């Protein structure tokens, strides 16, 4: 196909092939996120090949290729993706670690523009514009552009209440999502959420990670910063502590002062308007009744 629209976290994203030499395709996990909207928030033009590096581009961030296995981080390669700034543009060069070797991509964008360019190397005619890590990078910069939040967390909705459980890997996000699912709650997502301020209310959205996902969302009524414990315990937080703890679980790149300022501003509003607590929990269903009892 030559073009399609996706609606993810209420962003309408249009992907367009730049020419006859490039066809587009997507993995199954996006099948429920197709959109018929004619009004895209952002258009991504997909090209074959990689552009030549710009002489005046300045490298501002570099990330090695690290994977997590059994709650341990293991570096696979020193090279993964790199961010450059060239005047008002941001360029991201990345390797594509899955599939054929030595494949690369370059995403060129201007945070204020409505059209971005994506270049993908390789001899194949078909291109996946959301091949890992392009999916996370593109969604992250959409949140930057829109003044929104990309966060590691589990989100659930039950009894018309939305709970967000944030924590780094190993703190129990997947476990607590499973427990809520078994209790009959709607799980928005168990790892990666986008939070947007919609009509002056914060709403969390899922992002496609697993096959057969459908778009889900819920207002954020309460946030818990989670950790394992020998007993279930909810501990209040001050506003400054809440801000730092929530920020620590956000996806962020600390190289651009304007991005830092924008994220801090929206997090101040979120943490000022939302009930935020620390939660130490036992990994069994008792934590569900404990939280619901404390809601009364």
List the keywords.
single chain, 296 residues, alpha+beta, Phosphoenolpyruvate Carboxykinase, domain 3, 2 domains, nine-stranded mixed sheet, 43% strand
How would you describe this protein?
The strands form 3 sheets. A 9-stranded mixed sheet has the order 4-1-2-5-10-9-8-7-6, with helices on one face. Strands 12, 13, 14, 15, 16, 17, 18, 19 and 20 form a 9-stranded mixed sheet that branches. It is α+β, with helices and mostly antiparallel strands. The protein is 20% helix and 43% strand. Helix 3 crosses helix 4. The longest helix is centred in the C-terminal third of the chain and has 17 residues. It folds into 2 domains: 126 residues, no CATH class; 147 residues, Phosphoenolpyruvate Carboxykinase, domain 3 (Alpha-Beta Complex), CATH 3.90.228.
Which ranges are low-confidence, i.e. pLDDT below 50, for 5 or more consecutive residues? none
**Which structural class best describes the helix and strand composition?**
alpha+beta
CATH topology of the largest domain: Phosphoenolpyruvate Carboxykinase, domain 3
Mean pLDDT comes to 91
**What order do the SSEs take from the amino end to the carboxyl end, as H and E?**
EEEEEEEEEEEHEEHEEEEEEHHEH
Please provide a brief summary of the model.
The chain has 296 residues and is of the alpha+beta class.
List the helices and strands and how they pair.
Blueprint: E1 3-8, E2 11-17, E3 23-24, E4 34-35, E5 42-48, E6 58-69, E7 72-86, E8 89-95, E9 104-109, E10 115-120, E11 126-127, H1 134-146, E12 149-158, E13 161-166, H2 173-182, E14 186-189, E15 192-198, E16 201-206, E17 217-219, E18 222-228, E19 233-236, H3 239-248, H4 257-273, E20 275-281, H5 286-295
Parallel strand pairs: 2-5, 3-11, 5-10, 13-18, 18-20
Antiparallel strand pairs: 1-2, 1-4, 6-7, 7-8, 8-9, 9-10, 12-13, 12-14, 12-15, 15-16, 16-17, 19-20
């Amino acid at each position: 196909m030559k073009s399609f629209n996706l609606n993810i976290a209420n962003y309408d994203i249009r992907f367009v092939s730049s020419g006859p030499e490039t066809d587009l395709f997507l993995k199954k996990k996006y099948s429920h996120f197709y959109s018929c909207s004619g009004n895209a928030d952002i258009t991504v033009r997909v090209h074959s090949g990689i552009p030549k590096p710009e002489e005046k581009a300045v490298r501002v961030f570099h990330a090695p290729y690290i994977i997590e296995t059994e709650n341990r981080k293991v570096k696979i390669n020193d090279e993964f993706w790199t961010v450059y700034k060239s005047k008002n543009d941001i360029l991201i060069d990345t390797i594509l670690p899955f599939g054929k070797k030595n494949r690369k991509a370059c995403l060129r964008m201007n945070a204020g523009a409505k059209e971005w360019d994506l270049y993908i190397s390789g001899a194949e005619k078909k291109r996946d514009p959301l091949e890992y890590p392009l999916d996370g990078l593109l969604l992250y910069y959409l949140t930057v552009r829109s003044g929104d939040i990309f966060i590691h967390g589990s989100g659930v909705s039950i009894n018309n209440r939305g709970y967000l459980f944030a924590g780094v890997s190993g703190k129990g996000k997947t476990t607590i999502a499973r427990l809520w699912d078994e209790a009959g709650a709607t799980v928005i997502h168990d790892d990666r959420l986008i939070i947007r301020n919609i009509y002056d209310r914060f709403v969390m959205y899922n992002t496609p990670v697993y096959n057969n996902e459908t778009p889900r969302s819920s207002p954020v009524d309460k946030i818990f910063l989670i950790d394992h414990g020998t007993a279930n315990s909810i501990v209040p937080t001050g506003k400054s502590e809440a801000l730092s703890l929530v920020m620590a679980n956000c996806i962020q790149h600390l190289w651009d002062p304007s991005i830092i300022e924008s994220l801090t501003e929206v997090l101040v509003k979120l943490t000022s308007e939302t009930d935020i607590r620390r939660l130490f929990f036992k990994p069994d269903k008792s934590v569900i009744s404990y939280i619901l009892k404390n809601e009364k």
